[in-house]
């Protein structure tokens, strides 16, 4: 489509202070600061899989970038550049304008330049590649967890999954709870400041995109360790903790996706340091268990061991 160029100029061309050359040539040009590594990640958002076609376009714009920022946050990397490959079923200016508003609200919040991409016709599909910088050898890896480490999470867990369950009419939430959960589902807040603050403090880190147990499981396998968690220690909305004996609540907290909080491990000697980070960021950080030797992931609830059918969301499962 020729109109593709007008569309790119109108919606996807913004100043790029972090780049030597942004949108408009055959490739963009960037420079990595001396002493830093390039951290690169891609996440695709597909209609019907990651969002419904009638989801507000602003929310799709925000979230399609936010999930990528979350990946760099989990590495302790500062995002600086991104590309956007987008397939659109039609040229709907109202939709595009709202999408761009949400997308660039997130880009501006985290100081990320859109430096290129591709625009094509097709079923709605949004692929962002994000690039950022981290001091050489310092990034937070999944493989760094050590036996005896405390396991921490940021924010509240399970809200986004309950928002989705509410949307799908699988559960009825009180109005005020529903709106908090729907906001969590559509407006995840990538914990970038936390990821950066954890450099040199945490031994390992992962962002919770597919569910706490599933994502923690990735970390445990990468580190060759196990874990013991206390379900009641996992921070969640008061509405959720009050009903934690219900399977749907346990499912939301342990296996619900889309929270985009960080799960990290650190030696217990960092406890006060982490409390300080929590205070200075105004972000709850909660210790939910510890790393064990072996390979098992145990979750305790009211002094009983839970049997875990709950696994992370698997797109092909
Ligand atoms: P080419 O045909 O050389 O691949 P394109 O026509 O696809 O170039 O793109 C022209 C310019 O617009 C390139 O700089 C490309 O990176 C940029 N671009 C295309 N689509 C997008 C988009 N959705 N967001 C940002 N930049 C884009
Ligand atoms: Mg192209």
Summarize the structure.
The chain is an alpha+beta fold.
Secondary structure category: alpha+beta
State which percent range the strand residues make up: 15-25%
Instruction: Compute the CA-based radius of gyration.
Output: 20 Å
Please summarize the sheet with the most strands: 7 strands, mixed
Strand segment count? 11
**What integer is the average pLDDT?**
95
List the bound ligands.
adenosine-5'-diphosphate, magnesium ion
How many DSSP helices? Answer: 10
Overall spatial form: globular
Helices and strands, in order, run as HEHEHEEEHHHEHEHHEHEEE
Helix content: 25-40%
Question: Order of strands side by side in the largest beta sheet?
Answer: 6-8-5-9-7-10-11
Q: First CA to last CA: what distance?
A: 37 Å
Low-confidence stretches: 310-317
């Amino acid at each position: 489509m020729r109109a593709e160029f007008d569309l790119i100029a109108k919606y996807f061309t913004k100043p790029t202070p972090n780049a030597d050359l942004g949108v408009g040539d055959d490739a963009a040009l960037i420079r990595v600061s001396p002493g830093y590594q390039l951290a690169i990640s891609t996440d695709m958002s597909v209609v019907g899989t990651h969002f419904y076609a009638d989801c507000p376009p602003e929310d799709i714009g925000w979230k399609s970038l936010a999930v990528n920022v979350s990946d760099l946050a989990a590495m302790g990397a500062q995002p600086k550049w991104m590309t956007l490959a987008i397939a659109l079923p039609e040229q709907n200016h109202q939709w595009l304008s709202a999408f761009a508003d949400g997308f660039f609200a997130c880009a501006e919040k985290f100081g990320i330049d859109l430096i290129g991409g591709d625009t094509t016709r097709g079923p709605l599909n949004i692929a962002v590649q994000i690039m950022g910088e981290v001091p050489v050898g310092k990034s937070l890896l999944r493989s760094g967890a050590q036996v005896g480490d405390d396991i921490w999470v940021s924010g509240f867990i399970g809200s986004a999954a309950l928002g989705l369950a509410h949307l799908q009419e699988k559960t009825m939430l009180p109005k005020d709870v529903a709106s908090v959960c729907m906001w969590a589902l559509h407006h995840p807040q990538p914990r970038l400041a936390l990821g950066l603050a954890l450099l040199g403090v945490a031994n390992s880190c992962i962002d919770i995109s597919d569910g706490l147990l599933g994502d923690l499981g990735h970390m445990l396998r990468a580190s060759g360790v196990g874990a013991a968690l206390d379900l009641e220690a996992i921070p969640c909305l008061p509405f959720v903790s009050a009903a934690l004996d219900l399977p749907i609540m346990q499912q939301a907290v342990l296996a619900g996706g889309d929270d985009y909080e960080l799960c990290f491990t650190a030696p217990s000697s960092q406890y006060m340091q982490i409390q300080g980070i929590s205070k200075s960021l105004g972000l709850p950080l909660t210790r939910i268990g510890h790393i064990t030797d072996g390979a098992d992931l145990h979750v305790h609830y009211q002094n009983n061991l839970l049997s875990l059918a709950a696994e992370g969301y698997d797109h092909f499962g």
